[in-house]
Structures
1.
Amino acid sequence: MPVVILKALQDQEIPVYGDGKNVRDWLYVIDHVKALLLVLEQGSTGETYNIGGHNEKQNIEVVQTICEILDDIQPRSDSCSYKDQITFVKDRPGHDWRYAIDASKIKEKLGWTPEETFQSGVKKTVQWYLENIAWCEAVTKDNYNLERLGTK
């Protein structure tokens, strides 16, 4: 998500691996933290609790959702959609098609479910980046150019 948001805002190409149909389960960070705290405070010693968002989405859906949110809350000056910046890049060798877990145990045993929907979590994430863009630029300047790592 950070690469998509920041590249969009910098008017750069937004890279999507392969055809964008790889599937991931998405969970808003604060929901994840709350789940971790609940497991720490109320979980049984030695038990394993998978934490999931129940939001399986194709990567291209995630990128398009981010672009739609940016179009709504910070439109481009040329009135084009951020979706116009999407470009498909060669997939990594051995890239998993789907990451999935069964998160039913944490709900059954501890009563936890995410508070945020996929849409509300992504919107909050995009908003955070917009409000903290100076920090993002300071962290990445001369250090990380939002490029793919680990391929050399």
2.
Amino acid sequence: MVKKITAVLFVKEIEPVVSFWVSKLGFTKTIEVPQGNKLAFLALESGSAEIMYQTYASADQDLPSVSAEVRKGPTFLYLEVENLEAIKAAVKGAEVYLPERTTFYGAKEIGVKDPAGHFITFAQFGAPAS
């Protein structure tokens, strides 16, 4: 049985995404793997939520059989949150690809791009459909 699922997002550089997750969204760095003066891999956690980033260069060394495939992104993530207003304030200034909306399935959502270009949708459930 599956105990946990964690997304691994592949990027050219990890450093631009650190403040998005740590400073803006309150995640904690749990694993950092350096490669020269940069990061090759980073794991972040907030409660039971976890996300990992790995560089293309690291994938070339670590996963050579699929390293060309990891460059095909971007990735789309869907995150359920308790307070969408707090998230909107935290990610202010990020590129919005999905303006705030209320869905037929009762979620109030907004979607932004992380600094590496991956698509992140934040959703608060319990919002009345409009």
3.
Amino acid sequence: MSNLISSQISEQDLEAVLQAISTIHQKMPFLVKLSPGDKKSTSMLDDKRIPFANKALDYATRSTSLSPNPLLLVEAQKDSNLFNNLQSIDRELTSLSAMVNDTRMLAGAELYEFARNVYKMAKISLSLDTPGTQSIVEDLGRLYANQGKSSPVDSVPAE
């Protein structure tokens, strides 16, 4: 077994991290969750379109006759600032999220490898007639055999 990660999160640190996430939600109450349909029907400003949008905003700012409405120009400027700021936040959160996911995956892989070795050792102990190992092998064996399957409660047909 390899031990590529050996860390813990204290209860205090976990609470602080969760509080920081809560603070992010509080600081950005305007965040929305789009449905898949909304995402499909919304024009996206990707990297190729940013220069076009920025230049159009610049022209409209310099020549107000190009703006369809003065209030829309103000809103477009807000949208531009929000887009740029959220893009910076998104990059940092995406990097952090990838690291959290990868670290969680590694910790889970190490735990699973350990569990499989415990099960293997229990089966060896059973073959050596070690007292008390029969129930351990049966209990772990049921769980090991049912990996990836729904539990019996989940598969009960509705009446």
4.
Amino acid sequence: MRFLLGIDDTDVLGQRPGTGRLARDLAAHLEGRGLARLFGVVRHQLLVDPRIPYTSHNSPACVILEADAPRHAFAQELFDVAAGYVAQRSAQGSDPGICLGEAPLINQDVAGFGCRASQEVVAKSEAIALADKHGLLCAELGGTGDGVIGALAAVGLTAEGNAGRFLELAGGLRSLGESVPAHVLRSREISLLSVSRNGEAVPSNALIRTGDWVRPRLIGGRPVLLVEPTAEGWSCFDRKAKHEEAVE
């Protein structure tokens, strides 16, 4: 069974760890407890607007987990352990929230909420009511608890499968190095998609220049790395921005 665990609003501007890093640490903690196996961690971007009191970049994360026990009692245990960890690790002054759901049970209403949260201001009361209606576990873990909005949105967007980028995958993304053969990336279940005008196929023996920053997009429910042919060979289309180290 696949579970989606959304978290948001765990940090404050200028402090570490960011929500992305905390999500990765949480995934490792849950694996270490033997509760679930990591599939990946996805970062999403929600609306940046002065009406929204986000703490840094308004970018929640969703931890995708695999487990063999879909029982309600197990989901509650997973949720309780995650909630305790996030509450303890969140920065002072943040407004953390989490949301957990079984992937097959997350419907278009929840996915639609995530899409709306990326484009317009949505209310915490709506997020809580929607989570309750569809049987998702949801909790405010401090401050205003507004993080439940982003947590639910991250779950919905991940379930929809066509937004966000992976910060981590099972087997690791951060040790791949500056250049990685295409077949190695594919062995990690990362699809390669050329974004050039002609959409050339990427040869299995092609060496992909990554800049030591491999962040596949979530496309069609799968990790997909956008690449482009350049004068120096194949390169990742997405490149690291200046603020990425803090948030990831």
